[in-house]
Amino acid sequence: MQRHRRRRETQRSSATSSSGFTLIEVMVSLVFLMVTSMALLQGLELAFRHYSLAQNRWKATVELWNRIEELRATHSPRGEPFQIIPDSRPLYRTLLTDPRLGEHSGWEVLNSEK
Amino acid sequence: MKNKGARTAGYSKGHTLVETMIASSISIIVLAGFFSTIGVFQTESSNLSLLLERDANLWLAPLLLSRWIIPAGNNRWDQAWSGVTIDTDRLELKSDIDGPGGFPDSKLSSSFEALVLRSSNSNLRVQSNRGSFQPLIKNIVDFKVDSKESGLLSIRLTAVTDRPLSMFEKDLPESTELLFFLRNYRSNLFPENP
């Protein structure tokens, strides 16, 4: 009789421990889910930041393009003069930069007097 | 004796109603949080995709237009055409860019030598030689051409998204103005022998 009772108690305790999830398992799953969600949202934020960066750079490039075309159209000599061939008309070198395109980027425009 | 054992065994299996309710509540909260995150992610991804598509179309325009507009005129001493004809929403370009050996041949017979550009049905359309207008760049709703001083051509393009972004009622427009110096516009060269 006592042996029967012991066996039943052992079965009951093993059934209770194996069924369902423990609190720690649930907490770990929740943390994992939260980390995944945060990673997704951070990836999205990164994508928007890069999009904004690309848009700014594109706008800066278009503005530089327009400035270069204006410079070519007006033939206004600016910058330092230099001659490629001796006794020829001097050319003027103008360097156009934009901080949005980075520190080391710049467009060099060669222009002559009209 | 049998009934007591069965009752005890039944009582020990499964969960109580309170445990089930708590578990259900936690599951609902966790799933709602997860799916709301997924919803935000999907909405914002869709918005970003629409913006990128609009901008990609707008950013493509300068590359193509500069390829066609800058050589317009081509400086042939005997050319009988005007290189650029401007209407407010229509631009005609004639540039002899594809003669034998890459040299102008004074005939506007090749593709992209005589172009007409205009915007209709949210597309920038192009007509090459005697062909019909074909869509060139989509989502361009406005195409304005203006002639500035010193041979500068100003082109204003406005692009919109395919559909309104979520949380916005209208399509989001984006405009840009491009300047092109028409260096070959005036025919002022001496006769050439290609």
Provide an overview of this structure.
- The complex is a heterodimer of chains A (114) and B (194).
- Chain A has 2 helices and 3 strands, in the order ααβββ.
- Helix content of chain A is 61%, strand content 13%.
- Chain A has one domain.
- By secondary structure, chain A is an alpha+beta fold.
- In chain A, strand 1 and strand 2 form a beta hairpin.
- Chain B has 194 residues and is an alpha+beta fold.
- In chain B, the strands form 2 sheets. A 5-stranded antiparallel β-sheet of chain B has the order 1-2-3-4-5, covered by helices on one side. Chain B has a 3-stranded antiparallel β-sheet with strand order 6-7-8, with helices on one face.
- The longest helix of chain B has 53 residues.
- The mean pLDDT of chain B is 82.
- Classes of the chains: A alpha+beta (114), B alpha+beta (194).
- At the A-B interface, helix 1 and helix 2 of A face helix 1, helix 2 and strand 8 of B.
Q: In which range does the helix fraction of chain B lie?
A: 25-40%
Please estimate the helix content of chain A: 55-70%
Greatest contact between two chains: A-B, 28 and 34 residues
Q: Number of helix segments of chain B?
A: 2
Major beta sheet of chain B, specifics? 5 strands, antiparallel
Task: Decide which structural class fits the backbone of chain B.
Answer: alpha+beta
What is the alpha-carbon Rg of chain A in Å? 36 Å
Order of helices and strands of chain A: HHEEE
Rounded mean pLDDT of chain B is: 82
Q: Regions of chain A with pLDDT < 50 over 5+ consecutive residues?
A: none
Question: Biggest sheet of chain B, strands in spatial order?
Answer: 1-2-3-4-5
**H and E string of chain B:** HHEEEEEEEE
Q: What's the alpha carbon Rg of chain B, rounded to whole Å?
A: 32 Å
